[in-house]
C-alpha cells in the first residue's frame, strides 16, 4: 500500500487544522475521511460541519482505499513551475467506495490509458519527512 519516497520538489500541504489531521493519518499508513455521526455520510475535504445535515459530530473513519476514476484532465502546460518536468500529466478525480471524491493521481497509468470507471486502489507515497500523499494505482483485482 505504501510507495517509496519520491523526489518531490513541489509545494506541500500545510499540516495544520483538520487538513493536518488528514495528512497525519496518511503518514501513519491510513487514508481516513470524516464520517458524520448523525447522517453517516463521509466527506472530503476536511471541514467542521456536515454539508448534508449540518451536524458538527464526526469521526475519522478509515477508508477502504478502493475506488474508481471519476474524471481527469490532461495537463500539457502546468501553471506552477514545480510541475514543469512532470508534463504532460493527468490529475485525476477518484471516487472512493465511501462516496467521497478527491483529487489525486494514478501513478501507474499514462493519461491515454485512463478510463472513467477504472478501478483503482490507494498507494500512499512519501514526499517529505512528514508528508505522505494519497495517490492511486490500477486495482489488481
Ligand atoms: Zn451529516
SS summary, helix count: 1
Average pLDDT for all residues: 93
Shape type: globular
The total domain count is 1
First and last CA, distance: 14 Å
Secondary-structure content class: mainly beta
Helix share bin: under 10%
The residue ranges in which pLDDT falls below 50 over 5 or more consecutive positions are: none
Order of helices and strands: EHEEEEEEEE
What is the quaternary state of this protein?
Answer: single chain
The main pleated sheet reads as: 6 strands, mixed
Radius of gyration: 15 Å
The amount of beta strand, in percent, is 25-35%
Distinct small molecules bound, one entry per kind: zinc ion
Number of strands: 9
Domain ChsH2 rubredoxin-like zinc ribbon: 26-58
Pfam families: OB_ChsH2_C, zf-ChsH2
Domain ChsH2 C-terminal OB-fold: 60-124
InterPro entries: ChsH2_C, ChsH2_Znr, NA-bd_OB-fold, Thioester_dehydratase-like
Describe the structure.
- It is a single chain.
- The protein is mainly β and 141 residues long.
- It has one domain (13-138).
- The protein contains one helix and nine strands, in the order E-H-E-E-E-E-E-E-E-E.
- It has one helix spanning 17-27; strands at residues 2-3, 32-36, 42-43, 58-62, 66-72, 92-96, 101-104, 119-126, 132-138.
- Strands 1, 5, 6, 7, 8 and 9 form a six-stranded mixed beta sheet that branches.
- A hairpin with a 4-residue loop joins strand 6 (92-96) and strand 7.
- The chain is globular and about 45 Å long.
- The protein starts with a strand and ends with a strand.
- The model has no long low-confidence stretch (mean pLDDT 93).
- Zinc ion is lined by residues 36, 38-39, 41, 50, 52-53, 55.
- Zinc ion binds next to loops.
- Residues 60-124 form the ChsH2 C-terminal OB-fold domain.
- This is DNA-binding protein.
- InterPro entries: ChsH2_C, ChsH2_Znr, NA-bd_OB-fold, Thioester_dehydratase-like.
- Residues 26-58 form the ChsH2 rubredoxin-like zinc ribbon domain.
